[in-house]
Specification:
alpha/beta, Glucose Oxidase, domain 1, Enzyme I, Chain A, domain 2, TIM Barrel, 3 domains, 8-stranded parallel β-barrel, 13% strand, binds phosphoenolpyruvate, binds magnesium ion, Phosphohistidine_dom_sf, Phosphoenolpyruvate-protein phosphotransferase, cytoplasm, transferase, PEP_util_C
Length: 589
């Protein structure tokens, strides 16, 4: 290091999968196929359409082949992403639009497909939700595969990456199939020009624990194979050809990071218990079964929030009962013997799903979203209830409902649930007769009547992301208001207290599954308020557990009593920080 080559260029991208890694780069050609638009005659239209359809079929065969190879080599894990891509290939809109462009605009098939892609991208770009917006990347990857078949350009497979020592892959973009083909023994990280935090490739990198930085825009243009780079997958920083000082600095950081990770791993199998013997349930928020090994690896004792809307996102129509059942069953089996808490569809607001005919709303966050949508579409809701009930025969399942605002609503839900149960009984289909049901507390009205709602269900789960949004009237997606989004606002603290007190008075559990649950500095407050369960991102669990094991519940209760006397979020925060400095400082490194 530090040779003539060291230019120490620093690039900032998006940290997609945490960890620091240092190694030599190998650039893989994932550049876009260059398409030249050509005019065709009306007589050439059928041949162009046939060429397009043949390329579609080839792309599909190729993907099925990759899937078979991977299934044989590594088992069924993670393969659902490839199913997503197969679904895109089968998407009738992709075919319809491309054929229409060929017929109406009289352009060659490649250009027609590119125009279809541009339409898709335009559509996705207007979506607020980050996860959904990034699905555009999936369509792009699939379209590239088809284009390559049309222009006859092959692509090297990442299975072939057998270089000496350890390699970092740099590519314009990597498809989920690429990531799945990576051999972790020889590839220690990757960087890409494209991609975002919730792209499927990023999700897979996290699931496989390969450090990665994406969204670097032009990194492939700045690198040459053989360059040394440093990737910091936590901060999103990449250093090209580091000088000696930077190299040493990052080596130290890498060692420190790995030391902390190892230290935290020690907490994995220790009970989540305070010094005075209070046992807290620490669970994970998940969207894909691929996340379960990491959740278990971080010591999660179950799934506290399974966001099922993910299943509805990539489909032109809502998934049928069998598809949903298979997804829930996979999750339940993977998490066994621990419980899985399945939330029914929570779309609308900033989460959009094709074909649910959501009207344009002036105030989507206050519109037909979550349970309101399910109750307006009992046809879709009942399919989901049946699928969840059936999965409950396979292991411990709890079910809960988003955005409940009052008792009438939960009673309607329960009536539909009873009908679904009766139908399954008539059919002789197995389900857990004692399945527990709960509601998300995320609307102020639900807080105010928490005592009434507590009589209707078996548990509460507070969605602080929305509860803060609705209590303080702060749009959670509006970056201009983020300074007003205050989890420690006295109104939020009082709300949380009302919810826990009402739950406990009725003898039911109070859980919390908003982002607040995974923030270590809030732990003394949530513990002192009396929450029974915290559900968070898997990687937050060891840190929260470490602090929990040094806390004393009785002391945390006193801390909360003091915290509730302050008038502003800032006052509560200052008090909390001084308490942390005085009592738990060493737990927070
Ligand atoms: C919440 O609102 O806190 C929550 C967990 O639900 P979501 O973030 O999916 O709205
Ligand atoms: Mg919510």
């Amino acid at each position: 290091m530090g040779s003539a080559k060291s230019n120490n260029r620093l690039l900032q991208g998006i940290g997609a999968s945490p960890g620091i890694t240092i190694g030599q780069v190998r650039i893989t050609d994932r550049s876009r196929v260059v398409v030249i638009e050509e005019r065709i005659t009306a007589g050439e239209v059928p041949a162009e359409i046939a060429r397009f359809k043949a390329a579609l079929a080839k792309a599909k065969d190729e993907l099925l082949q990759v899937k078979d190879d991977l299934a044989a080599r590594r088992g069924p894990e993670h393969l659902y992403v490839l199913d997503t891509h197969l679904l895109i290939l089968d998407d009738s809109m992709l075919t319809r639009e491309t054929v229409a462009f060929i017929e109406q605009e009289l352009v060659n098939a490649e250009a027609a497909l590119k125009r279809t892609l541009a339409r898709f991208k335009e559509f996705f770009a207007g979506i607020e939700d980050e996860y959904l917006r990034e699905r555009s990347g999936d369509v792009e990857i699939v379209v590239e595969r088809v284009l390559r078949h049309m222009v006859g350009q092959d692509q090297e497979s990442l299975t072939d990456v057998t270089v000496e020592g350890k390699t970092i892959i740099a590519a314009h973009d990597l498809s989920p199939a690429d990531i799945l083909q990576i051999d972790k023994e020889s590839v220690i990280g990757f960087v890409t020009d494209l991609g975002g935090k919730t792209s499927h490739s990023a999700i897979l990198a996290r699931a496989l624990e390969i450090p990665a930085v994406v969204g670097l825009e032009r990194i492939t243009g700045e690198l040459a194979t053989g360059d040394t780079i440093i990737i910091d997958g936590t901060t999103g920083i990449v250093v090209i050809n580091p000088d000696q000082e930077t190299f040493r600095d990052y080596l130290k950081r890498k060692q420190h990071y790995e030391y902390l990770e190892r230290e935290l791993q020690k907490y994995r199998d220790l009970p989540a218990e305070t010094t005075d013997g209070f046992r807290m349930q620490l669970k994970g928020n998940v969207e894909f079964p691929e996340e379960i090994p990491s959740l278990k690896g971080h010591g999660g004792e179950g799934v506290g929030l399974y966001r099922t809307e993910i299943l509805f996102f990539n489909c032109p129509v809502p998934p049928d009962e069998e598809t949903q059942y298979n997804a829930y069953a996979t999750m339940v089996r993977a998490m066994a013997p621990h419980p899985v808490t399945i939330r029914t569809l929570d779309v609308g607001g900033d989460k959009f799903v094709a074909d649910l005919n959501l009207a344009d709303e002036l105030n989507p966050a206050l519109g037909v979203r979550a349970i309101r949508l399910s109750l307006r579409r009992p046809d879709i809701f009942t399919v989901q209830l049946r699928a969840i009930l059936r999965a409950s025969a396979l292991g411990k399942v709890r079910m809960f409902f988003p955005m409940i605002s009052g008792v009438a609503e939960i009673r309607t839900v329960k009536a539909l649930l009873e009908e679904a149960k009766a139908e399954l009984r008539r059919e002789g289909t197995a389900f857990d007769e004692a399945i527990e049901i709960g509601i998300m507390i995320e609307i102020p009205s639900a807080v105010i009547i928490a005592d009434l709602l507590a009589r209707e269900v078996d548990f509460f789960s507070v969605g602080t992301n929305d509860l803060i949004q609705y209590s303080l009237a702060i749009d959670r997606t509006n970056e201009h208001l983020s300074d007003l989004y205050e989890p420690l606002h006295p109104a939020v603290l009082r709300s949380l207290k009302m919810v826990v007190d009402a739950a406990h008075a009725a003898g039911i559990d109070a859980c919390i599954c908003g982002e607040m649950a995974g923030e270590p500095e809030f732990l003394p407050i949530l513990l002192g308020l009396g929450f029974d369960e915290l559900s968070m991102n898997a990687i937050s669990i060891p840190r929260v557990k470490k602090i929990l094991r040094r806390c004393n519940k009785a002391e945390a209760e006193q801390l909360v009593a003091r915290a509730l006397t302050f008038s502003t979020a800032q006052e509560v925060l200052s008090f909390l920080q001084s308490e942390i400095a005085a009592h738990y400082a060493d737990s927070f490194d």
